[in-house]
Amino acid sequence: MLHDPKGGSFWFDAGAVCLDFAHAGGEGQYAVFEILHEPGDLGDWVAQPPLNAVVTVPVTARELTAGKALRQAIWDAAHARAADRPLPEKAVAVLNRAAAAPPLAPRLTGDGIASEWAAPVRASQALSTLAREMIALLSGPLAERIRECASDNCPMVFVDSSRPGTRRWCSMERCGNRNKLRAYRAREAMGS
Q: Do you know which Pfam families this protein is assigned to (predicted)?
């Protein structure tokens, strides 16, 4: 669920946890969406589904800085791929650096029917896991399906995992419906 600073919220599924992370705030005009203000905010974000990585070692200011850099690298790389442009060198370097750290390690629970992250759980491990997912996405079969929302003023990116590969909107609830309403009003105005 994403929240608009002007009010309201909408359901958004980016199709990959790393892309969800890319939408957790930002710089410049996206600073109004920022949710990573303090180190603990990064811990709160990674603890949420679907990652569910409850950190057992306090998040440091350095990890917060690395998290924001990774988030920007994911954003930049996703937009470059969606526009069929070469990936920015800086984004590639940040992704590779984050992925080089040890990732989260899955562990089967004692009952053998569920999994959890093996302790200790560090924010740097969660960041590595997100970077590795983005690298796999950029180099895998869904790379050609990274899209930017087709709305005129929506920069959201997502993986189009629909069977026909025709998803155009970040969310039908938000941009899809707005576009349909705009088209309907235009047809009505022409018919009047």
A: ABATE (PF07336), zf-CGNR (PF11706)
